[in-house]
């Protein structure tokens, strides 16, 4: 034996011995919180730009306090208000514009994903006076700009309370469950346009613009809840499925002084996904969309006469995205984001809607707009300029000049800026570095102070068998697709391993990202320690690689994405260390739709699949999301049905596990029940599990541990 061979065998022995000494991650540790990361408390920058506030809470004894800190020292300056005998425990807060008062939320309970009910108080910081807004739980209380009034929604009606007089006025009277909603959104707007409060104070507190939803004709949906009582009960709400009727949405203006409500004519828009007041107290911006969501109009509404004029119109062959990036400058010129040149970039328009210039440009995407520092003419944003799996922070002038790299360390950087843009707190992580929080000078990105890291977690993980996440690209169907792979820590290229693929694949999404591990990553590490290779490929239709790549799947959800996963699995199976006869795939929600289709349409490629909370027909999903990508079933029946897995259950050859929560208000358990019935009638054997009363997240108590134990056992038994 030569020296080189001896040395190799010696080193291999050392590696094997070292690996053997390390612990393997267990499911109980993952879902018992053993690897939970320390996070930065959610902070709000104060108007002075040098201080911020944090809500601090304790469970035992149960207490809460709103504390003020200095950016420069990160030391607490004072406690603004704390729970006591006089002040109830509060779980969130909002300042008035001048920060003289703070709105405190107590006894909060969820309605849907974003909506909440609660008992709210207004606390005057100077006088320490506490005012209860309503004896009944209300929604979305919002202080007027001068802090003298608070508007809120109760039982689908809009109210305004005068804090000095302690009087409350009911603004609307027609609100009624299942028919009329004033001032908050219906279910589908909340879920897909991502907002709940549908009213806005103007800058001087003289007007409130609000949306009214007439959901009378929206089809009724109900689902059984089993609970712990003798009889189950039904939960009922309005849910518009693809091709069905939506709420009729209208815009109205309330004059606070006179109490008069007037209507705003916007030429009967199908959707009104955003309203926002400009700096001019008499100018309201309104965004409208047609049903296909490929024609967006930005209106300026004059609140004195309700006359609406189009500032900007954007069209797209597929769809136009809605976001919250619209920013009005002091003269009501505005910053806007658009994919007009093929990538998401920043644009500057004058107050009349005339394009002044494109601010950012290049074959990369702006992924987040942080804000505009008017004093120094600096826009702060996040982008993928340093690679589509990374995120960096940058500043640039409105003319597209003086661009500066701020936090661009390879990985994922995100920033929270002080109000005057003097400082920002950067959150950084990568596949090898857990979350690290640092304070920086916003003018140049220079590090001011280390705040917090997760070195303790990293030290703990040094005692565990952790395999690196290897990033690369794989060329399939003419595209270089982003991919990561996790191999067993004791990987031997001369052995053959089963391949287990994970994906989500939904439009504009990304799973292959250089960021720290989530719970699924720890599960994948657990599987790797059991001898599996885990891979993830972001196929066509996913995000951050340009408009054309993202929108290629238009009107054909589940076609190209499935082709890419099948082709990627086949190409990976050509590698000498992968067993081509042991290939599995899994996913949740859209990913469950995908894994089901892959097992059926790729039945000669995949031997097993797990689908959690899957869509099995886009006919069952909501209007806004589905029609954005598919148009209606009436217009595009083959697009819906050719990729609906319960239409071809006879293709099932491999092992299939189907999981759903019976209380899922988003992807209804109807999807799984129809899939089950199709498989039964095709006489195809499969495994399934229903989690009673659990929603789309399928969690609570031991639920996640039970679910992932079931999935782990299924992988071990069938792959």
UniProtKB/TrEMBL annotation:
Residues 525-719 form the Peptidase S9 prolyl oligopeptidase catalytic domain. Gene3D superfamilies: alpha/beta hydrolase, Dipeptidylpeptidase IV, N-terminal domain. Residues 96-435 form the Dipeptidylpeptidase IV N-terminal domain. Keywords: Hydrolase, Protease. InterPro entries: AB_hydrolase_fold, Pept_S9_AS, Peptidase_S9_cat, Peptidase_S9B_N, Serine_Prot_S9B/DPPIV. PROSITE patterns: PRO_ENDOPEP_SER. This is S9 family peptidase. It comes from [Muricauda] lutisoli.
